[in-house]
Design a protein that fits this description.
Order of helices and strands: HHHHHHEHEHEHEEHEEEHE
Number of domains: 2
Number of helices: 11
CATH topology of the largest domain: YojJ-like (1
Distance between the termini: 52 Å
Structural class: alpha+beta
Radius of gyration: 25 Å
CATH superfamily of the largest domain: DNA integrity scanning protein, DisA, N-terminal domain
Largest sheet: 7 strands, mixed
CATH class of the largest domain: Alpha Beta
CATH architecture of the largest domain: 3-Layer(aba) Sandwich
């Protein structure tokens, strides 16, 4: 077995590398294992609903072939797959740069005191109830008139790079203003509006399109843009379909559809809540 490990890792490690740490096992080792398990759990959460999950399966398959080729001393396969593992992590970082960037942004947007809030029901709204009611009222009217709309609630992840693609308005949020922006002859109706701090901060903004392969062909560019932004930030995006008038919400890379004004208001209040400062 020792010779197998020596050949498997090209002499960089040996079987003693796996056995020596257990000679003086202490509380530091327990902490080390817990941190390692936490790292793998975070990795699992990252790849669970992303394309990286399928890629990980492919990597595991290659690893099995590499181990078998080493065990059976198949030198050609060992050389090819050894080169892959030598540079594979760099290739993965390049291929999954958008996903890694989104994960780092989300990690950076979580305050340290947020660890205390795990399992705690949140109560305080990110925006005022009046802002939510304005969006619900406008979405209901635009759904009835089959006017397409894309409304973004900015949360902890700042959306400055997307705000710059549109026009800054920074006006009080009202249903009539939202409907005027998305009127089909208005100059800003093709883009998204971004709500910051309960105000209509910008309009005509361009959002990143999702490249998820499992998005229904029935969904248009608005829905794909809503999903794309929700994949890269913690924003909540309300979409009104121009073709059917259906109201949808994109959040964390998922699209929830078929909302009425009542269910839309309830869902927005649910998603837009954050920790109560008194419980931190």
């Amino acid at each position: 077995m020792k010779q197998f490990f020596d050949r498997l890792f090209f002499g960089g490690f040996s079987s003693q590398f796996f056995t020596e740490p257990f000679g003086s096992f202490g509380w530091r080792d327990v902490l080390d294992i817990l941190c390692f398990a936490l790292l793998f759990y975070v990795l699992y959460l990252f790849i669970r609903d992303r394309r990286a999950g399928k890629l990980l399966g492919g990597i595991l398959f290659v690893a099995v072939i590499f181990a078998v080729s080493e065990l059976l001393q198949m030198y050609a396969l060992r050389y090819v797959f050894g080169s892959f593992f030598g540079y594979g992590f760099i290739l993965l970082a390049i291929i999954f740069q958008p996903e890694l960037r989104a994960a780092m942004e989300r990690a950076g947007s979580v305050p340290f005191h947020g660890l205390k809030s795990i399992g705690v029901e949140s109560r305080e709204l990110v925006v005022s109830p009046a802002a939510v009611d304005a969006v619900v009222e406008a979405a209901k009217n635009m759904s009835f008139a089959k006017t397409g709309a894309l409304i973004v609630f900015e949360r902890s992840t700042k959306l400055g790079e997307y705000i710059q693609t549109g026009t800054t308005i920074n006006a009080d949020l009202t249903p009539k203003l939202l409907q005027a922006v998305f009127y089909d002859k208005a100059p800003l109706h093709d883009g998204a509006v971004i709500i910051r701090g309960g105000r209509l901060f910008a309009a005509g903004c361009y959002l990143p399109l999702s490249d998820k392969p499992d998005i229904s062909k029935e969904l248009g560019t608005r829905h794909r843009a809503a999903i794309g932004l929700s994949e890269q930030s913690d924003a909540i995006v309300v979409v009104v379909s121009e073709e059917t008038g259906t109201i949808s919400i994109a959040y964390r890379g998922e699209l929830f559809r078929e909302f009425t004004s009542v269910s839309l208001r309830r869902k927005l209040f649910e998603l837009l809540r954050k920790e109560d400062k008194n419980e931190q």
